[in-house]
Write a structure and sequence with these properties.
- The protein folds into two domains: 22-256 and 396-409, Rossmann fold; 274-390, no CATH class.
- The protein contains eleven helices and ten strands.
- The chain has helices at residues 5-12, 29-53, 68-73, 106-115, 156-169, 228-242, 274-282, 308-332, 336-344, 348-362, 372-390, and strands at 57-62, 96-103, 122-126, 143-145, 173-182, 200-202, 221-223, 225-226, 245-254, 401-409.
- The chain starts with a helix and ends in a 5-residue tail after the last strand.
- The relative contact order is 0.14.
- Bound molecules: S-adenosylmethionine.
- S-adenosylmethionine binds at residues 63-65, 68-69, 103-105, 108, 128-130, 147-150, 153-154.
Length: 414
């Protein structure tokens, strides 16, 4: 083999390309360490419960893309923090009897098949879910999964019809996972006054550099945005019509301030840079820019009366977020009196997190890392902001996504 032959091969195979950093792009740090984690933590109890009853589970991924759901579901960390260190994930590929991916896009299906060609239980099929559930003849699935707003591509009536078919397909017990665009997101105040029977424009132009985000040149498509009560209404009316017993296991607002369009001005005048800053916080190669975590949401005053409950929820979360930022400033200025004052006046859930942050900051020298801020403090701050969002009450539709898991059982309670 000529001396350079090995390197010729690895360069050709793409190993020496510019690797995509976690600071931007489709699978950025916020997607990996905030949004994916949020989904994993939400669905874990349902999967753990299923595994108590059966060895292998059957999954269908609705609008599967190239199989992202399979990757997600097989990388859920167990709930025990320190015990069983050798068990990395709640389920692994071998625990899945079938993963049935379905998507309208031929390119996605082709990619999915390619990604999982070594996994015999993974199957990808092209179908349009707006026309209904294409697998009524198959045995029921345990989880009817969807992620990252695939089902928002359907209009209300289409999603209602699909849900009806899925509920009737479930023979004893199953879970349906909705992950839809939230209507009261601070990203699109102009949509707050609309309702879920109307599809409204959306764009993925956040993937383009800011200078190319010209609203007249980018691609727009229509999607459906939901409030919490509209989604509950859909689920309950379908349950009534199909005679099924349903339980909403959880409904949460995801990405209230880190939604992709907070950092664009395609739906609102102001361009924030919150996702950018949180991407940096999560990244072990960058120190977080704490001053960048401050932002203002005064522009939402104009929709305060459109939905006061959503507006209040966003402000409650905003206050928690800013308290974390204020604590960091006080720590950096060695203002211990201020740190103590903030902690003492914070709700318990936040006070505990702030005490831990203060401890970390004051014990930085104990950590054998090259850059304490980049490796320990920044990621920890981002996790706290994420966990605070996760701990909010039932979702209202005021995040980029409204995430919901429903348990469906055959018999409706009399
Ligand atoms: C934002 S992507 C999400 C992909 C994947 N679930 C993920 O987690 O990354 C939305 C997906 O929905 C698919 N989709 C859109 N309309 C659909 C339809 N009517 N039927 C089936 N799939 C659809 C798209 O092709 C796309 O792959």
């Amino acid at each position: 083999m000529p001396r350079t032959k090995f390197y010729e091969i690895v360069v050709k195979r793409g190993f020496y390309g510019v690797s995509e950093s976690g600071l931007c792009g489709k699978k950025d740090n916020v997607r990996k360490f905030w949004e994916d984690v949020f989904i994993k933590m939400s669905i874990r109890p349902a999967i753990e419960q299923l595994l108590e009853q059966k060895d292998k589970i059957r999954v269908i991924d609705l609008g599967c893309g190239s199989g992202e759901g399979l990757e997600l579901l097989t990388h859920i960390p167990p709930s025990t923090a320190v015990k069983k260190v050798n068990k990395e994930f709640v389920i692994v590929e071998g625990d899945i009897e079938i993963y049935q991916g379905v998507d309208i896009s031929p390119a996605m299906i082709k990619q999915g098949k390619q990604n999982y060609s070594n996994l015999p239980q993974a199957d990808f099929v092209e179908a349009d879910l707006s026309e209904g559930f294409p697998f009524m003849q198959n045995a029921p699935y345990d989880i009817y999964f969807s992620s990252y707003a695939s089902l928002s591509h359907l209009n209300y009536a289409e999603l209602e019809h699909l849900t009806e078919q899925i509920f009737s397909h479930i023979s004893s017990r199953g879970y349906m996972v909705f992950d839809l665009h939230g209507r009261y997101s601070p990203e699109w105040p102009g949509y707050w006054s609309k309702d879920c029977h109307l599809q409204l424009p959306y764009t993925m132009a956040y993937l383009l550099p800011p200078q190319e985000q010209d609203p007249n040149k980018i691609k727009w498509f229509d999607v459906t945005y939901y409030s919490g009560s509209e989604l509950i209404g859909l689920i309950e009316s379908v349950a009534d019509a199909s005679g099924k017993k349903v339980k909403i296991i959880n409904m949460r607002d995801r990405s209230i301030f880190v939604g992709r369009h907070m950092d664009t001005s395609l739906f609102k005048k102001q361009r924030h840079s919150i996702r950018t800053e949180v991407n940096r916080l999560f990244d072990h190669g960058y120190r977080g820019r704490i001053s960048g975590l401050g932002f203002d949401i005064d522009y939402l005053e104009e929709v305060k009366d459109v939905n006061h409950q959503a507006w209040t929820r966003i402000h409650d979360y905003y206050n928690l977020w800013q308290t974390v930022v204020n604590t960091l400033h006080a720590l950096m200025n060695a203002n211990n009196t201020e740190v103590r004052k903030i902690i003492e006046s914070s709700p318990e859930i936040l006070a505990d997190e702030l005490k831990m942050l203060a401890w970390l900051y004051r014990n930085a020298d104990r950590f054998p890392v090259v850059d304490f801020w980049a490796s320990v403090m920044g990621p920890q701050v981002a996790c706290i902001l994420r966990n605070l969002e996760f701990s909010l009450p039932q979702g209202l539709g005021c995040g980029h996504s409204l995430f919901c898991i429903v348990e469906i059982e055959n018999e409706k309670k009399k």
